[in-house]
Amino acid sequence: MALIAQQLNVLKHEMVPEHSIMTDEEVQALFSRYEISAEHLPKIYHDDPAVIATNARISDVIKIVRKSRTAGRAESYRLVVKRPKK
Amino acid sequence: MPSPKRIGKIDFGLLSPKEIRQMSVRKIIWADTYDDDGFPYPQGLMDLHLGVIDPGLRCKTCSQKSGECPGHFGHIELAKPVIHVGYTRLIRKLLRVTCRECGRLLLSSDEIEKIIGTDISATGDSLTEKDIKKERICPHCGEQQLKINFEKPTTFAEIATDERGKKVENKLTPADIRARLEKIPDEDLRHLGIDPVVARPEWTVLTVLPVPPVTMRPSIILENGQRSEDDLTHKLVDIIRINQRFKENQDAGAPQLIIEDLWELLQYHVTTYHDNEVAGCPPARHRSGRPLKTLSQRLKGKDGRFRGSLSGKRVNFSSRTVISPNPNLSIIEVGIPLRIANEMTIPIRVTQFNIEELREIVRNGPDREDVRDPCGANYAIRPDKRRVRLTKGATSEDGNLEFIAEQMEPGWTIERHLRDGDIVLFNRQPSLHRMSIMAHRVKVMDGKTFRLNPAVCPPYNADFDGDEMNLHIPQTEEARAEAFLLASVQENILSPRFGGPIIGGIHDHISGIFMLTHTRRWFNKGDAISMLQNCDIKRMGEPDKIEDDVPYWTNKQIFSHILPPTLNMVFQASSCENCDQCLRENCDRDAYVRIVDGELLCGTIDKKAIGAFDGAIVHRIIRQYGYARAVQFIDDVTRLSIRAIMYDGFTFAIDDEDLSKSDYGQIREVLERATHDVGRRIQIYEDGQLEPMPGRTEEETLEMQIMQVLGKARDNTGEIAGRHLGLSNSAVVMAVSGARGSMLNLTQMAGCVGQQAVRGERIMRGYEDRTLPHFKKGNRGAEGHGFVKNSYKSGLNPTEFFFHAIGGREGLVDTAVRTSQSGYLQRRMINALQDLKVAYDGTVRTTGGRIIQFNYGEDSTDPMKSSFGQPVDVKGIVENILKEAV
To answer: Which SS3 state, helix, strand or coil, does residue A43 take?
Structure first.
């Protein structure tokens, strides 16, 4: 089990879109572009496999670049949050 | 105005006795309501402190008049505590998880930690009944626990074992229960998911009962002058009466037996006051025998407060009746019966500009007698908001029409009748998509039904087998503007679901236009004009040929009259068979449609060109010329096709399925060969010679082969039948043009119905090793497992009929299950998505401004303005310029 977990990087799988941590400047630019604050962003849990693979911390913003059927390429941004208690 | 605030959290709790007394304005002690003079008793159930419902009186608490006073709560001090039925489950749980002696949780702190975690790594779980083992010893005080029995509706008992090992049931009174609940420490309650600050468990056992304000249980006065009290008041009377008697007996030191009886009676009345439909409790009844409608009944169910009064309400300015078709109406119109148009009104403000027109409307009075008459009005509203009913009267002196017409001046409002051209909203339930409510233009008509053009049936999913539809009249200019600009029929021709037209020709429109435009025919001037007479045509084009000085127009020319003169299109019609090598203009089915400069050069117009859901021509006209031209085209094409179908006549009868003797022979031969083939394959299987297909057993292989053979046999009979039935057959016309039905339906009528299936397999169920007692056990033949050799016309034999019913039932069950499942799915989707909107920066956001999608659909394309999903219709543009196929 542990061996597989170490070897498998989910980000390299073809079905997993590109995840990357945004720098503070990029985040600020994003906030001003959409006139929002962090709470308005879509969320992603800190224990999401892709988040773990990127080494992102809580309150980081992750940029996700997906292939899109309609637009070809689509960017999305998500705020890393702690998974709430059930 | 205060600035908007964000809600941080909401606490749900119980009313404590303290709070109940605090909000009470009056202690209620008398069961009586009114005295002999009709005046409320002080400290009675209708006490003037609780609010007023009779006009003229003033509330003694807030000194406002009836209608202004919101009402105030009172309270009843109960002689002994009683259980609140709504919380019996909670009480049972708490009694079972806590110690009967010390009141603490029946778990040591270690055990608690194991389940809900420590402060740092709390799982967020709370304890449940299942976490505690039954009849254990309290880890805190060592007391042996007893089993708690709960009997509906409100009885609790402890089961103890006496010296001789016999079980004894000790009833717990509400007072005992309350004492035990009081002992549970706050900390233990938090582990159970209860916040003791807002909800102490002992508050679920009532010691004081709130009395709702009279405004929420008003008494009504009947015609005979008698007062009739609300059901809640009746119930409260019962409670107070028993409560008083209980108190008296208690004070007099009555025997325990009597006290217990009264206590139980009080519990019964309080229980039914809260919920009159509890299991195990006879409902409290009115004197007439009708069960009382108490608190829970006011909220629950379809007509309850939530579903009946808050989520859905009845509205004014609406009407409902049966619908029927009228192909001569435009698709943007709706026919309204005169009776309805005379009842439904639109308020018009009188200004100096329209005063003369409105005077005339007022003089016309409230009774319009003919659809051609100018509209009248029902009410005039004076500037002081007083409504005056317009009455005609027997003579002009009796009525007030002339008087009002003279008196009115700017500032008045006249409620005039509906008249032609008014904008109304038209709706058919279930309203599953935006096209279920569309704005139409009124056309006042005779008759008693709403009339609509059959071309607008698809968006409403309406037919005329008794469907009813609703009509709503927008009452303000803003509402009318909004309805017209957003919801009108022309704005909704394109469906946002697939970006194509959802309104277009149906059924006879398609058969008619197919028969008109198929191949090449010539019509003389009279016939041509009679077909085009209902269309908006200014001038006939040049005739195609002149024979003996008589001009003739081709069928394709006649159709071209209703096309925009600059339209260029090339496409394949529905009847196209997708040949490997397309013959284009020389297609022997005439399925290659080519329109150059608004002239249909070749091809047949059918479902693909003008049908609802397809409508290639309609779609192109919208993109190129706009909605208004598309409306005109749909109106024209439906009228033209109706005239065209009447020119030839269109009918279908039993003898249209007749085939020649040789055809029947061939069909019999095909079926015999198939039966024989099946028998041969069964023989191979039974001999064990059958080679199984990969991944399948021999039996499965055999079944597949049989299904295949029989399926092919049915198709072959269809081919034989199809060879005989040509385009002179109406059913073939309908199938080929896409108007209704398919060649398969025709095969089943004329050739052979074919294999009946359940879950995609031959019918196997029934008796042991056979489907019916008509067959031998272990029979695998075609007839024994649902193959219907006969056609619908020749008629099914009894076993075939039975198999057909089995197969047919599956279809019915499937549709029933599917509709209910997809309906619920859609409801949940709507609830989740209803408040999302596309912001000006292209993001999809919630009302709180939270982003759901950074770019609507990721490509910012409105599917309604797209061309079948594509933002730009490249093919259409190229076609239009080259006037050739791309």
So the answer is: strand
Best residue in B836, B840, B854, B861 for a mutation probing chain A (most A CBs within 10 Å): B854
CA distances (Å), B34 to each of B9, B70, B137, B235, B662, in order?
A: 44, 21, 57, 16, 94
- At the fourth CATH level, the homologous superfamily of domain B508-648 is RNA polymerase Rpb1, domain 3 (1.10.274.100)
B859–A76 CB contact, under 8 Å: no
Q: How far apart are CA B776 and CA B878, in angstroms?
A: 67
**Span B826-844, pLDDT tens digits:** 888 888 998 999 999 999 9
- For B253, the token pair is 């030191």
| Residue numbers in B near A85 (CB within 8 A) | 122-124
Terminal Cα-to-Cα distance of chain B (whole angstroms): 63
**SS3 category, B196:** coil
DSSP code of B748? I
- Cβ pair B208, B75 in contact under 8 A: yes
The answer to whether the Cβ–Cβ distance between B851 and A71 falls below 8 Å is: no
- Please tell me the pTM assigned to this model: 0.80
User: From the CA of A39, how many Å to the nearest CA of chain B?
Assistant: 7
Domain with CATH 2.40.40.20 in chain B: 318-492
In a domain, A43, yes or no: yes
In a domain, A86, yes or no: no
Q: Residues spanned by CATH 1.10.274.100 within chain B? A: 508-648
State the total domains in chain A.
Answer: 1
CB contact under 8 A, B852 and A42: yes
Question: Cβ contact (<8 Å) for B857 and A86?
Answer: no
For residue A17, is it within any domain?
Answer: yes
CATH of domain B27-71+212-307: 4.10.860.120
B604 and B592 Cβ atoms separated by less than 8 Å: no
Which range of B162-166, B318-322, B394-398, B729-733 scores highest in mean pLDDT? It is B318-322
Q: What is the CATH number of the domain that holds A14?
A: 3.90.940.20
Closest Cα in chain A, distance from residue B10 (Å): 18
CATH of domain B654-813: 1.10.132.30
**What CATH number does the domain located at B318-492 have?**
2.40.40.20
Higher-confidence residue of B583 and B24: namely B24
Tokens read off for B568: 């260029």
Element (H, E) at B547: strand B545-547
Q: How far apart are CA B83 and CA B830, in angstroms?
A: 40
Is residue B55 within 8 Å of B179, Cβ to Cβ? no
Q: Is B604 left (phi over 0), alpha (psi -120 to 50) or beta?
A: beta
The vertex-B450 CA angle with B445 and B452, nearest 5°, equals 95
Q: Which tens digits make up the pLDDT trace of A4-29?
A: 556 678 888 889 999 999 999 999 99
Q: Are B154 and B275 in contact (CB under 8 A)?
A: no
Q: CATH 4.10.860.120 spans which residues of chain B?
A: 27-71+212-307
First to last CA, chain A: 26
Helix (H) or strand (E) holding B809: helix B798-833
Q: Give the one of B122, B851, B857 whose C-beta lies nearest to A41's C-beta.
A: B851
Question: How many interface pairs between A and B have CB atoms less than 8 angstroms apart?
Answer: 43
**Nearest Cα to B509, choosing from B500, B517, B520?**
B517
Looking at chain B, which residues constitute the CATH 1.10.132.30 domain(s)?
654-813
- Structural domain harbouring A22: 2-81
